[in-house]
Specification:
By secondary structure, this protein is an all-alpha fold. About 80% of the residues lie in helices and about 0% in strands. The chain is built from two helices and no strands. Helix 1 (about 5-55) runs antiparallel to helix 2. The longest helix has about 50 residues, at about 5-55. It starts with 5 loop residues before the first helix and ends with a helix.
């Protein structure tokens, strides 16, 4: 059995603990990155769709759509900032 300096053994144990901590952190960051990619797509696509429905007022002259157009018209301005 190799008798190692206790300080050297403590440093080795701490390095192993740090390695495990880095592994958990990298896994968490990778999962978070996948979620933010999905949210980024939502925050790009939804304002485009809402803006297209709001601009449909130009093509559709029916007054019954006024409330929907007003709501959808506000959405892209709020979400794009």
């Amino acid at each position: 059995m190799d008798l190692m300096d206790p300080r050297a053994q403590e440093i080795i144990d701490e390095c192993k603990r740090q390695e495990e901590s880095c592994l958990y952190t990298s896994t968490a960051l990778f999962s978070w990155q996948k979620e933010t990619r999905k949210l980024r797509i939502v925050f790009i696509v939804v304002p485009i769709i809402c803006g297209s429905f709001a601009s449909a007022r130009i093509l559709v002259r029916d007054p019954s759509y006024d409330w929907a157009v007003a709501i959808l018209d506000l959405a892209p301005e709020k979400w794009s900032s």
